[in-house]
Specification:
With 459 residues, this protein is α/β, with parallel strands linked by helices. It contains 15 helices and 14 strands. The longest helix has 34 residues.
Length: 459
């Protein structure tokens, strides 16, 4: 695993993922992610927000999912005012391309011509969107090159669409050009994720960051996307905390992003109070989301997120023998003097009090994500169904009649029928919005680090 992470770190630290190409968010930012189903049903933006919730607990941010499944840049253009700008973004991250570049015709007789036609259509649609983005006042624009279509994984029963990802790369290239010409920020997901995928496939031809459809990243793929985003914001090397103590002299050597007080040595034992400025980043071990089978935590096997961005280090020199370490009276592990001198990463220990606190933040954020997903399904009904029938936001008896006439022949309408029946009612929408805000408020109440008592006892 360590060797794979070294390879991953090497390929992800190159031109495809510059040290900082996206400025960190600021207190009070409202960050809107506009995209297709990869954004709509995905977690990458939620995982990025979770990083800010835990790493910057006194910074109040709001993230918004503005993805809708199946959409192209042209579709997104039609809902900019009612769905996207209405969220009052201070930062707008825009991604598209997967649906724009088309699907099954790549394996037909004129796949190359088909790809070229879809590329030209995508570029024309984005040109109209670009004009709208140019007119935004006081809004940072970030263009995100689409995650790849995995043409190379060996997936039984799923013949890849040959040449599709090349067209996706061309779309990412004109996004990069657009960002450069306007002074916008840009991050490409396609190249680094493709490189990581193909490196793993050299040993395991069936490996893929996506599910069986070759399109949608699984939870671990979304965490890799979050890692790339955070790396582009310059967070590699930023530690949760760095505690360094010389036990022989009973002296604090370093208090990185934390404060150490009341250091005491009694015989061969040591104790002190520890207040960090951050919480460790919690990694979910359960898969969440429609069609997802792999957990967020699996990403730790693919990229060096823990090594680069999730280090809560306890380093104690000047000891002899083995020591049990207690936090708030609870034993969390036993290490030798050599291991403690080399440093122990507390962020990897899921039963510490601070990790449990962070995990509560993670679960509340997941509940928030689930509610927001309901609103994205409602948005699909409004903008990809009712708007085409001249019934945008009608939410009346006629709208329901139109819906029910088509649900038998439209699987997407049938799938979203029950959710729409609830959220078409303003009282229900208001209650769900209040529930979301309650969750966010609770997150920003419980995410503040507290003082912990750390003790080292000679075994």
């Amino acid at each position: 695993m360590k060797l794979n992470l070294l390879f991953a770190a090497a390929l992800l630290s190159g031109a495809a993922a510059p040290a900082q190409s996206i400025a960190p968010f600021k207190d009070g930012d409202r960050v809107v992610f506009l995209g297709n189903s990869i954004t709509d049903g995905g977690h990458y933006h939620s995982y990025v927000w979770l990083y800010y919730m835990t790493r910057f607990p006194y910074m109040n941010l709001r993230f918004f999912n503005a993805g809708i499944g199946g959409e192209t840049a042209g579709d997104m253009l039609g809902r900019l005012d009612g769905d996207v700008f209405a969220k009052r973004p201070t930062v707008l991250a825009v991604t598209f391309g997967m649906n724009d570049t088309g699907y099954f015709e790549y394996n037909g007789d004129n796949g190359e011509a088909f790809g070229q036609a879809r590329y030209e259509e995508c570029r024309a649609n984005y040109g109209r969107m670009e004009q709208r983005l140019e007119g935004l006042d006081s809004v940072r624009v970030i263009l995100l090159g689409s995650s790849p279509y995995d043409e190379t994984a060996r997936i039984e029963g799923n013949e890849p669409l040959h040449g599709k990802n090349d067209v996706l790369r061309r779309v990412s290239a004109f996004q990069r050009e657009s960002a450069a010409s306007h002074g916008w920020e840009y991050l490409d997901y396609n190249a680094p994720l493709t490189e990581l995928t193909q490196r793993r496939q050299a040993d395991d031809p069936a490996f893929t960051l996506t599910g069986g459809d070759r399109i949608h990243p699984d939870n671990d793929g979304h965490m890799v996307m979050a890692y790339l985003f955070l790396k582009a914001q310059g967070f590699a090397g930023k530690e949760v905390a760095d505690m360094r103590i010389d036990a022989a002299r009973c002296e604090v050597v370093k208090q990185g992003n934390c404060r150490i007080d009341n250091l005491r040595r009694k015989g061969r034992d040591l104790s002190f109070d520890y207040l960090a400025e951050s919480l460790p980043y919690p990694m979910d071990t359960v898969a969440h989301g429609w069609g997802m089978t792999r957990a967020q935590a699996k990403a730790a096997e693919l990229v060096p997120f823990v090594e680069e961005m999730n280090r809560e280090m306890l380093t104690v020199t000047g000891l002899k023998g083995d020591y049990s370490v207690l936090i708030d009276g609870e034993e969390i592990g036993t290490w030798s003097a050599a291991e403690l001198a080399a440093g122990v990463n507390l962020a990897e220990i899921t039963w510490t009090p601070q990790y449990r606190q962070a995990r509560a933040v993670m679960y509340l954020n997941e509940y928030r994500w689930e509610i927001e997903r309901n609103f994205r399904d409602y948005a699909w009904m409004q903008y990809d169904f009712f708007m085409k029938h001249g019934l945008l936001d009608a939410n009346d008896r006629h709208a329901v009649e139109v819906l029910d006439r088509e649900k038998g022949s439209n699987d997407w309408v049938a799938m979203h029928r029950d959710n729409y029946a609830k959220l078409m009612l303003p009282e229900v929408r208001q209650a769900r919005e209040m529930e979301q805000e309650l969750l966010v408020d609770r997150i920003y109440t419980i995410n503040k680090p507290v003082v912990h008592r750390i003790e080292l006892h000679r075994k």
